[in-house]
Amino acid sequence: MPVIYSLSIFVFLIAVLAALRSRLVYELSGTSLLLFGSTRPGITLYSIFFLPGTIIHELSHWVVAEILQVRTGEITIFPDIEAKNQTQRLGSVATERSDPLRGFLIGLAPFVTGLGILVVLGKLLADGWGGNFPLWQLGLIIYGIIVVGNSMMISKEDRRTWPIIIILLLLIIIIVYRLGYLPSPGIISSLTSVLQILNLILGVTAGLNLVMIGGSYGIRRLIEKLTKRRIV
Fold it and tell me: What sign for the dihedral angle of Cα 183, 184, 187, 190?
């Protein structure tokens, strides 16, 4: 079925984006380590570059938590560079423990918000690519796609309630299917169209990430040759 095919590509692209994001952090951290003897400057540069996306990410958590009446606390938009294994989590929103469903919705919020923004930016990019927008506007759109596409990824902490919810959703789907309640062809067709649009935008985002990683890799390799040191 086309919808299954489109959904499979969607899941694959999300996994690719998550991997590319990790690689970009590695390249910037490695270059920083070679130049300054510390990963701090690289992580700081990464944090500043992706600051708008981090703000959107954390505000999405906060807004949904407030809507669901889950108490929130401190909001941070920069990583704790001193802490270990925190280099890829740029910010956080403190929330009280809640039931699995609300925890799931709060954790999912940045991903849904990010997809919505990417759809808008993708349409703007398509409209402006033929010369309808000046170059600086196209540059801002491309920057927005890179920032949002990387910042909408869901952290391990945000996924803590997912196993329970996924099991429940699978059970509901199986029960509905066994009872013979299937979506209408119109709904399936609409879902397929939305997934195809998202896949195109995610593919563009992955391509832009590859360009950034390629540039970062080239700089790192050049520095390694000049300094006679290597990142292992």
Answer: positive
For residue 225, give every residue at least 6 positions away whose Cβ sits within 8 Å of its Cβ, in sequence order, or none: none
- Residues 171 and 107: their CA atoms lie apart, in Å, by 21
Place of tokens 């997934």: 195
User: What pLDDT is attached to residue 1?
Assistant: 65
Closest among 149, 92, 128, 232 to 224, alpha carbons compared: 232
Going by C-beta distance under 8 Å and a sequence separation of 6 or more, which residues neighbour residue 7? 195
User: What's the gap between Cα 50 and its chain centre?
Assistant: 11
| Cα gap 144→152, rounded to integer Å | 12
Q: What is the pTM of this model?
A: 0.81
pLDDT tens per residue, range 20-64 = 988 988 888 888 888 888 888 888 888 899 999 999 998 999 999
Query: What ranges in the chain are assigned the alpha helix state H?
Result: 2-36, 40-49, 51-67, 100-128, 135-151, 162-178, 185-227
What secondary structure letter does DSSP report for 19? H
Rounded Cα–Cα distance for residues 73 and 92 (Å): 10
What amino acid is encoded at 39 in this protein?
T
The C-alpha atoms of residue 174 and residue 73 are separated, in whole angstroms, by 38
Tell me if residue 157 falls in helix, strand or coil: helix
Contacts (Cβ under 8 Å, ≥6 apart) of 230? 224
Residue for token digits 């832009």?
208
